[in-house]
């Protein structure tokens, strides 16, 4: 039996995050900042009132990172301006950092579990969006298995992204 839990990100997790960002399967889809910039970025997230980061644990073993955030409707790079979304829409981003857990279906399971947790801690949320790179077919299939539907492709500085939504 697989049991996922989510531990709020804190400063002691940053070396592990940095190691995961150096993994080839993470670097391919996530921009990898230099260590000092990474630490600064995640320290800001830890203290943010708009972004909430978690270490993903599988049977108490850290395997990845997941975050949710309140949508900035003024940020053209966020994709939320493409079409009207309900006011209580949040976004999520995640990756499995430990290569031992890639390609085994854990991504779908952990996202489902995270959504279940989100319903408890953010009870007014009605919609969740994700925006994987349009060429990241494994991520797109994972989101479709969870129940996300495609809203369209948009271009942003880092490339083309597929905006997808999940209605709670």
Structural description of this entry:
The chain is α+β, with helices and mostly antiparallel strands and 168 residues long. The protein has one domain: Gcn5-related N-acetyltransferase (GNAT) (Aminopeptidase, 3-Layer(aba) Sandwich), CATH 3.40.630. The chain is built from five helices and seven strands. A seven-stranded mixed beta sheet has the order 1-2-3-4-5-7-6. Helix 4 (106-121) crosses helix 5. The longest helix is centred in the last third of the chain and has 16 residues, at 106-121. The model has no long low-confidence stretch (mean pLDDT 87).
Query: How would a textbook summarize the main sheet?
Result: 7 strands, mixed
CATH class category name: Alpha Beta
From the coordinates shown, what is the CATH architecture? Answer: 3-Layer(aba) Sandwich
Q: Provide the succession of SSEs.
A: EHHHEEEHEHEE
Q: What would you call the shape?
A: globular
Physical arrangement of strands within the biggest beta sheet: 1-2-3-4-5-7-6
How big is the Rg? Answer: 15 Å
The N- to C-terminal Cα distance equals 25 Å
Helix content: 25-40%
Question: Residue-averaged pLDDT, rounded?
Answer: 87
Query: What is the percentage of strand-forming residues?
Result: 25-35%
